[in-house]
Amino acid sequence: KQEVTQIPAALSVPEGENLVLNCSFTDSAIYNLQWFRQDPGKGLTSLLLIQSSQREQTSGRLNASLDKSSGRSTLYIAASQPGDSATYLCAVNGATNKLIFGTGTLLAVQP
Amino acid sequence: SQTIHQWPATLVQPVGSPLSLECTVEGTSNPNLYWYRQAAGRGLQLLFYSVGIGQISSEVPQNLSASRPQDRQFILSSKKLLLSDSGFYLCAWSMAYEQYFGPGTRLTVT
Predict the structure, then answer these.
(1) Contact between B43 and A34 using a beta-carbon 8 Å cutoff
(2) CB of B62 within 8 Å of any CB in chain A?
(3) Which of A67, B16, B23, B30 is most enclosed, with most CB atoms within 10 A?
(4) Distance between CA A109 and CA A11 in Å, rounded?
(5) Quick one: pLDDT band at residue B62, thresholds 50, 70, 90?
(6) d(CA A105, CA A7)
(7) Contact at 8 Å (CB) between B74 and B35?
(8) For residue B91, how far is the Cα from the chain centroid?
(9) Is B43 in contact with A104 (Cβ distance < 8 A)?
(10) Shortest CA distance from B32: residue in chain A
């Protein structure tokens, strides 16, 4: 059974700092991995999708990497801003098009 | 462009009352549709998914049900709500394996 873990559960950083969020999964037989952002009381916003054949994806200040063999993904946020404050969720897709989610990392960027 | 709608945004219902949450998608055809629940302090749990009209798969046993009467409409229902049904309900659609989520419905069962 696939299990997805995100570390740390919560993170507080000063504005401008670069940071890394971690996601690990137990079954490496995944089709893709997706990173989401969730603001309080809101739905999920898709940030990046990495196919299993890819090593990384970039969008603006965000960079996500995937090491399928070791069951790990990282989300790198450069030059963090207070507007980046949110919960970040990773989810893996085992080719059934059903996502298994981690419990998230709550990020607070202090101005 | 594609958009996904959910309503109502918030709902407070007594235990034992019925439930109907609706989700509609615009700008795409024959999407896969999903219902997730996010309970306080817990992660997102897949409840139902559908690959076409009338085709529903249930992921967890519960007193909820789902229906897809039209290609871009997905409905979550219950005949009698339990306290444990409280949570944030999210609808999602996908094409080509990337999922997109709606704004969610906050359900409080009292």
Answers:
(1) no
(2) no
(3) B23
(4) 8
(5) confident
(6) 7
(7) yes
(8) 5
(9) yes
(10) A97
